[in-house]
Amino acid sequence: MQRTLILITLLLLASVHALAQDPAEVAAKQCKVVLENDYVRVLQWTVGPHEKTAMHNHPALVSISLTAGESRYTAPDGKTKDVTSKAGQATWSDPDKHSSENLGDTAGDIIQVELKKKPDAAMTAIPASEDSLTVDPKHYKVEFQNDRVRVLRIKYGPGEKSVMHAHPANLAVYLADGEAKMTLPDGKSNVTGIKAGAVQWSGKDKHLPENVGGKPFELVLVELK
Length: 225
Prior knowledge:
Blueprint: H1 2-19, H2 23-26, E1 31-36, E2 40-47, E3 52-58, E4 61-65, E5 69-74, E6 80-85, E7 90-93, E8 96-102, E9 108-115, H3 121-124, H4 132-135, E10 140-145, E11 149-156, E12 165-167, E13 170-174, E14 178-183, E15 189-194, E16 199-202, E17 205-211, E18 217-224
């Protein structure tokens, strides 16, 4: 009896593993977890020219391509879909299972923001009068939004600054090197160096950003709902 129970347990564990194929495990050489908390898990992919990845699962996510490229995705039933992406492009994906292949002659780099637990209102509610889109539409544009996220593209020229505004809990993906000065409502400020491809998690916050570097910088901000 005990041997039978052990066998059943092992079979169940094997079935769960087959159904939930974590890309950070099955494609560990190409996929790294760079940030994780209760609300998001952030994956950084680097797939070499003409490399393939193993079949894996994703929850709903936002992808930000760091490089341009072309990929082929294969579903469990064998159907394929070719996708061309531009550097800096942000896209939404529903939960999915697939393998992939880099069809290009150069490595492909991508950041994926997998969504986990939905945050409560204390982390997401901000006054409409403090929304970045309301107070600074020059620098903040909506890429897309749905019931889980609002994705913004943010661009600042050299020396440009915003006005004081608020964001719900969010994940930033930086697309260019630079230096940013952040001033808080109490007047305190700090200057931070930015690296292309870096990611940063922030809870609900309020600040006034300024590009204090000598060249434009750009980022994609995934705001949680």
